[in-house]
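Reopening: structure tokens for the uracil complex, inputs below.
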Amino acid sequence: MPTVHVFDHPLIRHKLTILRDKRTGHKEFRELTEELAMLMAFEATRAHPVREISVETPLAATTGWTIAGQEIAVIPILRAGLAMESGITRLIPTARVGHIGIYRDHDTLEPVSYFTKLPPDVAEREAMILDPMLATGGSTVAAIDILKRAGCRTIRVMAIISAPEGVARVHGAHPDVDIYTAAVDSHLTPHGYIVPGLGDAGDRLFGTK
Ligand code: PRP
Ligand code: URA
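Re-run output (same inputs, fresh job):
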């Protein structure tokens, strides 16, 4: 069964509230997006396998743990997903980064894909798609399609805010893909904006409006 994991950590709820606030400026918006991505990745990797290893401290030999299992590829969807990437690669420095460029057609709201550059071994890695906004779900479904065509079998979606319509579309098209999010909001406007949401993530990140 597909799953939506909604994070309720107090720090995530606190930072998300500041992110939503229309008075929050570009610099703080970028910093919060990065911090939220890091906190979400921390929660999402809770069940990641570890392997026992030996380590020598200055005083004695002991046993410790190292991360094991599948390596990770983080896949930001351009543009807004870029702001989440640094937060996650700081936590997981061995992650490779692939970029997928997609924008929504202004009239149809359907995704238009314009760029893909993936790590050569992406099929062997667990792919973590990054996009702050899961609205109609069209962009995320298109990104999952691209990754599956590239051979990826383990895919997770990290979206800071989701709409119920987007969650349903992703799970309808790709029931094997889990979604990790800080909030599932109320609904979409006729123009495809999430309510209450935070507005246009790309414009708020990069100051393009
Ligand atoms: C925004 C957002 C997502 C997409 C979500 O991107 O960053 O990628 O919309 O909407 P959907 O779920 O309905 O597909 P946008 O199209 O504004 O492109 P941009 O980031 O380049 O501005
Ligand atoms: N993209 C955004 O940036 N914001 C929304 O509310 C929906 C799609």
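The pocket of PRP (ligand 1) is lined by residues 77-80, 103-104, 109, 111, 131, 133-140, 166, 192, 201-202 (CB under 6 Å). The longest helix spans residues 26-44. Marking as resolved unless the reporter disagrees.
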